[in-house]
Amino acid sequence: MTTPPLAEGGLHALVQQCAAEVKLRAPGFQPAVAVILGSGLGGFADTLTDQVVIPYAELPHFPRSSVPGHAGRLVLGQLNGQSVMAMQGRVHFYEGYAPWQVAFPARVLCSFKPKVLVVTNAAGGINLDFKVGDLMAISDHLNLSGWNPLVGPNDEQLGPRFPDMSHAYEPLLLALLQSCAKHEGIPLRHGVYAQLSGPSYETPAEIRMLRTVGADAVGMSTVPEVIVASHMGVPVAGVSCITNLAAGIGSHPLSHEEVSQTANLVKDVFLRLLGRFIVEAAKHG
Ligand code: HPA
């Protein structure tokens, strides 16, 4: 189904049904921050205390991730006194899900009205200054996927037909990311993330084109989640882990193994940045 089901209550009702199951498992839980953890970055959720873990398979209407490195669990817990709801793994359009389904988990997170939705991903570096293992704060995105999760009837209970995307990545949060990185002594790049549909990696010609149109990093996720967060009025901060140089830049072929390996190598730095940011964002939000 390419558009959300028009069943009674529409998409809003499906989101509420799923959120109700979460509330049943963790009564009264109110996340200050929600986080979506990308390829190889799921370890962050393991650092939360007082965990309630819900496999995606036990959540109504939640799509299940089929990609290695994506655990497929919703983890609710505490980080230095702040309540955090984290998705360990996400689904992608290339897995065969409809656009509204790809963005459905982000909608469920946003329905809890966290102060911030943090999106993270593994990405190929396009900017020639970037190195493998760099972290990049996402300042904006290019939706080159060819689709949009809001296609279909608009459910006004969730948001407006034509949401503004001028500040999709909240500038104050971007500044907060930079200051957290500085405090932690972590070099943090910033740049524009381009999403293509995948699952094949890009050709060198596509990467040259992406650089020309202003992309600094490329990946196959994140944009739909940011679009629905904008739709639902939840501020977003985004971090990409540059797991590899994009096609045609490095000398070796691209592989999911390299992506996972690099994500694993930067794990500790990533956890430190995310940990500090979440606590600061929850305090100030
Ligand atoms: N291209 C697309 N998606 C990616 C890449 C890449 O080079 N690296 C990690 N995800």
Quick overview of this protein structure:
The protein has 285 residues and is of the alpha/beta class. The chain has eight helices and nine strands. The mean pLDDT is 93.
Question: Can you tell me about this structure?
Answer:
The chain has eight helices and nine strands. The chain is of the alpha/beta class. The chain has one domain: Nucleoside phosphorylase domain (Rossmann fold). Strand 6 (135-143), helix 4 (171-184) and strand 7 (188-195) form a beta-alpha-beta unit. The chain is globular, with a radius of gyration of 18 Å. The N and C termini lie far apart (37 Å).
Write the layout of secondary structure elements.
Blueprint: H1 10-25, E1 33-37, H2 43-46, E2 49-55, E3 73-79, E4 82-88, H3 99-111, E5 116-125, E6 135-143, H4 171-184, E7 188-195, H5 204-212, E8 217-219, H6 223-231, E9 236-245, H7 256-265, H8 267-284
Parallel strand pairs: 1-4, 1-5, 5-9, 6-7, 7-8
Antiparallel strand pairs: 2-3, 3-4, 5-8, 6-9
